[in-house]
Amino acid sequence: MKSDTELMRELALHTDYLKVLSEEESAAMKRALVQMYKDVARLCEQHNLLVMLCGGSCLGVVRHKGFIPWDDDLDLMMPRADYDKLIELLAQGALGEKYEYTAPNPRIDSKNVFLKIYRKDSRNVELFNENTTFPNGLYIDVFALDAVPDTIIGQKVKGFIANALQFCSILTLYAQFPSRSLREFMSLDKAALRRYRTKVFLGKILSVIPHRKWVWWFDKFVASNRENCQWGIPTGRKYYNGEIFPSSVYVPAIEAEFEGEKVYIPNGYDRYLRNLYNDYMQLPPIEKRERHFIIDFCLPPTEADNRTETDRK
Question: Which of 162, 168, 200, 222 has the fewest CB atoms lying closer than 10 Å?
Fold first, then answer.
């Protein structure tokens, strides 16, 4: 069965419902994301925290020395102890007034089960998020690297529970924040619309427990900062069990280049990327290329027009 993302990616090829960024908008978005990364990386360096590029951003480093040409986001990962410390710093306002964030919290709801850092003075509205209480600015995603059980059985049991908690959080999100844009988009395909309606129905049942609690329970359940053992990314693209390796695959991190900036990636990046993308140096066909489902986007005019001389030539 196709995932929701795969279904939506197929639908996006046959509709003009979504916003397609112009070359200028895409370039401005990428410049803004790089600046966001620099601000976060500077804060992490000041406090001796390790932050690495992961997922498609790590792939961009290795294959393009920058963004994948059609990419429109930036993904970071951090060991759990450093990840928690970064959230503490954000809560103290250490990143400045330009930013806001959401992360699992027992009192304040978070759209996702991981940390997202947003630019306040921007708009990057995606399907579903047009009328929620969550920020809708340009963002970067930050994922925690967590220690996992030592045995395969332990990993499978914990993974099953973790994935169930995450799935419940998604269902309650659909129910508590009904989205006209997502419903209209999914209605382009009868099977997709039936799946969406089923999830909303189940979410209403599960909503006797608020969404924020499902997110918080998931985060507390998976959090573990043991060293020199197996690590995984429970909130990653392959869920709890999909990115488990010896911690030595991830750390010590190595320096690399991304859009002319110094970044860090896992020292075992080849093993890491092959697990995610198989033959990762080959460009995927258009229908397999990942994208976000944007319905509105803008940056402050001064920043959107802020091109370097090289950009203008």
Answer: 200
DSSP secondary structure code for residue 19 in this structure: P
Q: Using CA atoms, how far apart are residues 88 and 102, in angstroms rounded to an integer?
A: 12
Model pTM above 0.85: yes
Highest mean pLDDT among 85-94, 192-201, 295-304: 85-94
Give the span between the Cα atoms of 11 and 9, in whole angstroms.
5
| Residue 8 CA to its chain's centroid (Å) | 17
Distance CA 87, CA 97 (A): 15
Q: Which residues contact 285 (CB under 8 A, 6 or more apart)?
A: none
Residue holding tokens 């309606």? 197
The token pair that represents 156 in the structure block: 């499978």
Chain length of the chain? 313
pLDDT band per the 50, 70, 90 thresholds, residue 14: low
Please name the residue that has the structure tokens 């991981």. Answer: 114
Show Cβ contacts of residue 152 under 8 Å, excluding neighbours closer than 6 positions. Answer: none
The answer to whether the Cα torsion of 178, 135, 186, 202 is positive or negative is: negative
- pLDDT tens figures, 179-234: 888 888 888 888 888 999 999 999 999 999 999 999 999 999 999 998 889 999 99
b (16+ CB within 10 A) / e for 271-295: ebbebbbeebeeeeeeeeeebebbb
- Please give the single-letter amino acid code of residue 140: I
